[in-house]
Amino acid sequence: MLLLKKLASPEVVKKFQEKYPDADIPSISDFMQIMRSASDLSEALNKLLDEHALLQGRWWVLVLLTRQDDLISCPSSLAEDAGVTKATMTGFISGLEREGYITRIIDPLDRRKYCIQLTEAGINKVNQVMPIFYKRVKNLMDAIDSKQRTEVVEGIRVLAQHQDLLKADK
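^ that's the sequence the OP posted. Answer follows.
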């Protein structure tokens, strides 16, 4: 998430070019715009989910559970599939359990281990929110034509494949 709401003006960009002459300002500007847009989209999704008393992380856990034929998964698998730490997943699970959307299934052989199962209330919540989610995502994505969509998605995919370039000098 990009915490910076206001991107640099042309005047500020000019100052940065003078101070850092080796900087590729158009690349930095484009990167910041991509990050800003992704943050805005994530914030819009948060608002949609907030209308249904859900947080984004918990929503994705519900979605991941609905992908399972038996509506059951273990916390470590959920954490891996969601791309979060086990500790973060534990927080999501606790919140969903308090809301009655999931239940823990204790491993009979090792009572320290458990899996998570979607409850009837969780299924109902997904069934309530999913049509709205699908409709609003479609409306959003219809803002660009299929050619633009393909180009945007492919461009973002390529950038994500090279994210290691942000992590270290190469």
